[in-house]
Amino acid sequence: MHLQIEAWVTYKGNFYQHIERHALAAPDAPCVYTGSSEVLSRAWLHQMSGRYANALLALGCVRGDRVAVQVDKSVQALCVYLACVRAGLVFLPLNTAYQPDELVFLLGDAAPALFVCRPSHKQQLQAQLQLPADVKYMDLDANGQGSLFDLARACDHHFDTCAVDGEDMACLMYTSGTTGRPKGAMLSHRAVSYCALTLGGLWRFSEADVLLHALPIFHGHGLFVSCNVALAAGAAILFQPGFSVDAVLAALPQASVFMGVPTYIHRLLADERLTPELCAHMRLFTCGSAPLSAEVHRAFEARTGHRIVERYGATEAMIISSNPMDGERRPGSVGLALPGLELRITDTQDQPLTTGEIGMIQVRGPGLFSGYWRLPQQTQQEFTADGFFRTGDLGCMDDSAYLSITGRAKDLIISGGYNVYPVEVENVINRMPQVQESAVVGVPHPDFGEAVVAVLVPHDMNNAPTTAEVIAWTRERLANYKLPKRVVVLSELPRNTMGKVVKAKLREMVSEK
């Protein structure tokens, strides 16, 4: 299945053209500030991406080829991404935590023409992956040095950005694979452009902005919702190699925008140096990739004077909704559907539900992926007959069309024949004074089918609430069938690289206890 989006003419052509126009208009303007206090201009980024584009073609890559990249975050790695987009190649970012066994499947499925890896891993990966003989290996380290950089440096910086159709694939992003085999979501130039331009407009990005970037760039949040938005708006990026509380706090006075995940927000709040004075220069804080509790949302406002803009996206849709810049930013809500997107809540038969009812979140619009790589039947199964994508998330909308996420469909707990939505129980437990955060999962139960198990992280491990106290607290606030049958206390919840709680892992852990 290949979606036809002919009506959205604004997003035709190569995404890179939206970055290139700023480089041509003001080549000397600052574009990237590095950790070593370098200031790299728009012209530098444009020329360096041109060198890499020529290098990729010199390696035999042709339009439509996949270029797999598993390297540490660096400005050079960002240039490789931009070069792929410019050259009509398909960028395939890979989590740096993936081990050889995981890479065997991903690279075998994607069939890249080139694999760029870390120099320290190159020999091991060549021996273990056993990719086809025609797949080339190049390397790039955390400092942006390596065989690919050496080749690019020797290439001409002039490169004519490839004329592509908006429906041509720009990136191949694999789903997290927390259950089952990962699937490759094909993201077109149209979808990438829609995300960058629409968010840039909604969040009022301009050439005056400086984005403090601490996210990884192998993930859609750090790449499409951060780098792309800033670069397409002509904003500069204060580029950090990773998240560090000290580094972020030191850089905040030089920035105007910060994009993070809940883990970042929690850690910043835990530091007494986070003050309104430190954030006085900031224009916008956003948070995504995982739910941010209403309590943390309010605590951040109290500490900084800023209300976080929480938003919602998915690998297959990149960005779906956002709280507004003007108007109410509601704690616990991910806001309103983006312009041009249609959002609805349905039952299991794809029939729309009424306001306030919890159901399946479905979306249709220009930001959607084009389908799953080499899985036409799977693609067809994930779309409704009228073209809506089934996100797999559960949620509800209120009278003002604000969307709230209640969990993943696969995380729904059915206990004694009743539906229990984990986020509802988590929100109640999170209000306990001793509790820092919680996660609720279902485990098999001989009588109820599934039992509700609450896993919590206390502020102080020596003062954790007892099972009886948690049950008593929730009994006053929830129906009996929603109450946890068991409470497990941990020092931290298992999370993936973007801060999402891995509930499949959590279910394994509590089932063993």
Could you list some keywords that capture this structure?
23% strand, GMP Synthetase, Chain A, domain 3, 4-stranded parallel sheet, disordered N terminus, 513 residues, alpha/beta, Rossmann fold
Describe this structure in words.
- This protein has 513 residues and is of the alpha/beta class.
- Among the domains are: 124 residues, Rossmann fold, CATH 3.40.50; 76 residues, Luciferase, Domain 3 (Luciferase, domain 3); 99 residues, ANL, C-terminal domain (GMP Synthetase, Chain A, domain 3, 2-Layer Sandwich).
- It contains 15 helices and 24 strands.
- The strands form six sheets. Strands 2-1-10-9-11-12-13-14-15 form a nine-stranded mixed sheet. A four-stranded parallel sheet has the order 4-3-5-6.
- Helix 1 crosses helix 2 and helix 2 packs across helix 3.
Helix content: 25-40%
* Uncertain residue segments: 1-9
CATH topology of the domain at 41-164: Rossmann fold
First-residue to last-residue Cα separation: 44 Å
Tell me the β content: 15-25%
Largest sheet: 9 strands, mixed
**Number of helix segments?**
15
Structural topology:
Elements: H1 17-25, E1 30-33, E2 39-41, H2 42-58, E3 66-70, H3 75-86, E4 90-93, H4 100-110, E5 114-117, H5 119-129, E6 136-139, H6 147-153, E7 169-174, E8 184-188, H7 189-202, E9 210-213, H8 220-232, E10 236-239, H9 245-251, E11 257-260, H10 262-269, E12 284-287, H11 294-304, E13 309-312, E14 321-322, E15 336-337, E16 342-346, E17 359-364, H12 376-381, E18 389-397, E19 403-408, E20 413-415, E21 418-420, H13 422-429, E22 435-445, E23 449-458, H14 467-475, E24 486-489, H15 503-512
Parallel strand pairs: 1-10, 3-4, 3-5, 5-6, 9-10, 9-11, 11-12, 12-13, 23-24
Antiparallel strand pairs: 1-2, 7-8, 13-14, 14-15, 16-17, 17-18, 18-19, 20-21, 22-23
